[in-house]
Specification:
By secondary structure, the chain is α/β, with parallel strands linked by helices. The protein is about 25% helix and about 25% strand. It binds ligand TNX.
Length: about 725
């Protein structure tokens, strides 16, 4: 009896505490349910008690449509205060029946208290629907972040995104208590910031395609396309972010990733004649010469303006993926190395970065660099290092005592795809929100001493593969970023032990509605698909609605129940809920391909290391030794005329339209002699659905050069 009673009390207690569990994300440190509720109605005022709280009071009044009160005349009221005795970025939120009191340790702390308050209210307010009257359950929240650096990254260099789009992501990151935006403003494919002393950098380098000197390696190839931020616009973005507690760290990626500048100022390059035959005359070099003194003058001009424009104490100067073979071929660089007793080109990189750091320091700024920049020597220990290549690279940086941002690709690059058959990069890993959520420094081998040097986490979105997805539409980017960003925020903010199932429950039951009101086209977890005894079925556990497509049609048909079919390979399923969607998900048979005997020939020479024979054995991609010229051709001939449902012909990388055949004609032949044109490639690919047995496929280049040093051809993907 006693046992039963204890059990009963225990069960009751857990039910009660479960009901009282906060649904705020990221999860606060301490939450305590109170008695009663606070009524938000038009009589309620917002009272900014602390002087600095003005912008937050306006922000909150915008969201809730409440008046601002100057002093404390009336109740009910929402009081906004700052108490420096609280932890940095921490806050106390107290909801009583007659007032809400939010006290932040500083500006950001107060802002985060407001964010938690918003999450206790109807989610519609994120969509601009002001609650006329609603209640907030009485409670007390005491909260502070685990890490001081909680960042997201946008790459507007590869794919242009305008001010409104950028602000949209800032806004949504702020809802999740992130406090830093790493802004990737320059790269091989674009320069997106006005530099007043060198206006050509943005005026010319902000665009590509058409007659732009910057060849459009990715994306829209025939039109001039792009944009840049004027300094005035950038100031506006900075202000907008600052109100939301977000600091913008700009990145000028140096000394590599600089093809845009190099196209406009070829004099910055190393002193040798490049071999241009291979790339159809296009100079692919992208590294600043380290020994040309005038380069540092130009860099001084650029960085001085960047330092002046951005209030952040940090400026990111890159340091990743430098093609040092350019320095090795340069007599000037070799001479400099000799003069300074340098053995390895990494030391030259150290030298280059040190020169940049001197410029930053003379402007009162601290450098941020990618992890390669600390190879080959040491930089000042105040330098903020971003570990992106691996866990090892992060640990090395932390061990050497640099403040380190942990962001290895396999956990934090949100340009990676989220499951095997989705879109996105794969080079680091394939992962969804769960892997981000479950990241654990200790389990990854970080020692307590190393952890002391970890300042926080950052998620990136590199945008080279993005352009095909119409950057004017938020769908693809939202899908890649959310809910992974929510998981990142949880990781960077919250302390407690991890409980994925609980987090997922809150995500689905509470946060899906909020993300919908935020107009995020976020990703749902994929439906489960199974095939048994002739019945193909799909299910979800998040309340979403299921649809299916049947090949070759792409029309989505509502799923009403198991489909009786002997051809499960024709179906794909997708669930939809409000603004969100899952990836298209199929039974394993959908992905099955066949490998009929095929011969491959080309007018171009093959790479010895990655030869054409790989295509005949379906082993993997094959490479040519140069870019294509008009008239170059590739021919697949099947040993036997092939009957099949679908043939997918792809050039370029598997996951990215680079090194493709650019400008093309595709023809098929049914007898191996006469060919009929079936179209050009689109972004390097074409899907064929031959209606009779097919003998050969011929691909012919109709343009000179793809802006690269080679063409990649993928093995045919053939579905029976
Ligand atoms: C690596 S992150 C890069 C970027 C690419 C990205 C794609 C880094 C320092 N370099 O240039 O865009 O991978 O995931």
């Amino acid at each position: 009896m006693k046992r039963t009673l204890t059990l009963l009390i225990l069960t009751l207690a857990t039910t009660l505490s479960a009901a009282a569990m906060p649904t705020i994300l990221p999860t606060p440190r301490h939450f305590e349910a109170g008695q009663g509720e606070f009524w938000v109605d038009p009589t309620c005022t917002i009272v900014p008690l602390a002087e600095e709280s003005g912008p937050i009071a306006e922000y909150l009044s915008d969201h809730l449509n409440l008046r601002l009160g100057v002093t404390l005349p009336f109740l009910p009221a929402i009081l906004l205060d700052i108490d420096p005795a609280l932890p940095s970025e921490g806050y106390h939120l107290q909801v009583d029946p007659d007032r809400v009191t939010i006290t932040g340790g500083d500006y950001n702390g107060l802002f985060y208290g407001v964010q938690s308050l918003l999450q206790l209210m109807p989610s519609e307010l994120y969509g601009g629907i002001k609650p006329y009257a609603c209640t907030i359950p009485c409670c007390r929240v005491e909260d502070a972040p685990r890490f001081r650096y909680r960042a997201f990254h946008l790459d507007v260099a590869r794919t242009w995104m305008d001010r409104e789009r950028v602000m949209r992501y800032i806004d949504r990151a702020a809802y999740h208590k992130l406090n830093t935006m790493h802004f990737h403003l320059t790269d091989d494919e674009g320069w997106r910031l006005e530099i007043r002393s060198h206006p050509e950098l943005a005026l010319e380098g902000g665009f590509r395609g058409g007659d732009s000197p910057v060849k459009s390696v990715y994306g829209r190839w025939d039109e001039r396309y792009g944009g840049f931020f004027t300094q005035e616009e950038m100031r506006e973005i900075i202000r907008y972010a600052a109100v939301r507690g977000i600091e913008i760290i700009p990145e000028i990626d140096l000394p590599g990733h600089s093809r845009t500048v190099a196209r406009l100022h070829p004099e910055i390059l190393c002193d040798y004649t490049p071999y241009l035959e291979q790339s159809a005359g296009y100079d692919l070099r992208n590294v600043w010469c380290a020994a040309r003194e005038e380069n540092f003058q130009l860099l001084n001009d650029i960085l001085r303006e960047v330092c002046e424009l951005f209030p952040s104490p940090y400026i990111h100067i890159g340091g990743d993926e430098v093609d040092m073979s350019q320095w090795k071929r340069c007599p000037r660089c070799r001479e400099l190395m000799q003069r300074r007793g340098m053995k390895e080109p990494e030391e030259l990189q150290q030298y280059f970065m040190s020169r940049l750091i001197t410029i930053l320091e003379s402007n009162g700024k601290t450098p941020v660099v990618w992890n390669e920049a600390i190879n080959g020597g040491s930089l000042k220990k105040s330098t903020l290092v971003q570990g992106w290549e691996s866990i090892r690279a992060c640990r090395k940086s932390a061990t050497e005592g640099y403040p380190t941002v942990v962001m290895p690709g396999q956990f934090f690059y949100f340009d990676m795809r989220q499951s095997q058959h989705e879109e996105g990069h794969t080079w680091a890993a394939i992962f969804d929100a769960r892997k981000v959520y479950e990241f654990d420094l200790q389990k990854q081998g970080f020692t307590p001493e190393e952890i002391r040097h970890v300042v926080g986490f950052e998620c990136t979105f590199f945008s080279e593969a993005y352009i095909g997805h119409n950057p004017e539409e938020p769908d693809y980017l939202d899908f890649m970023l959310y809910p992974r960003t929510v998981a990142l925020a949880e990781l960077a903010w919250h302390y407690d032990q991890k409980d994925w199932e609980h987090f997922k429950k809150v995500l689905i039951e509470e946060h899906y509605a909020r993300m919908t009101a935020m107009d995020l086209r976020f990703r749902l977890f994929p439906p489960r698909v199974s095939y048994r005894e002739g019945l193909l079925s799909a299910s979800t556990d998040d309340g979403s609605t299921l649809y299916y497509t049947k090949e070759p049609s792409t029309e989505e048909i509502p799923y009403k129940g198991p489909i009786r079919t002997s051809q499960p390979e024709l179906y794909r399923f997708r669930s939809r809920l409000l603004t969100a969607r899952s990836p298209l998900t199929a039974h394993a048979s959908y992905y099955k391909t066949i490998q009929p005997a095929v011969r491959f020939e080309s007018s171009m020479t093959q790479s010895e290391k990655v030869p054409f024979s790989r295509l005949e054995s379906y082993k993997g991609a094959a490479w040519t030794t140069r870019s294509h010229r008009t008239g170059d051709w590739f021919l697949f001939t099947f040993e036997e005329p092939l009957s099949c449902r679908e043939i997918f012909l792809q050039t370029g990388y598997l996951h990215l339209p680079r090194k493709i055949v650019w400008g093309s004609r595709v023809e098929v032949s049914y007898d191996g002699k006469a060919f009929v044109e079936v179209g050009p490639l689109t972004a390097g690919c074409i899907t064929l659905r031959p209606e009779m047995p097919i003998k050969a496929i011929r691909l012919t280049a109709t343009a000179d050069g793809n802006g690269e040093e080679r063409v990649i051809i993928q093995p045919l993907q053939i579905k029976q």
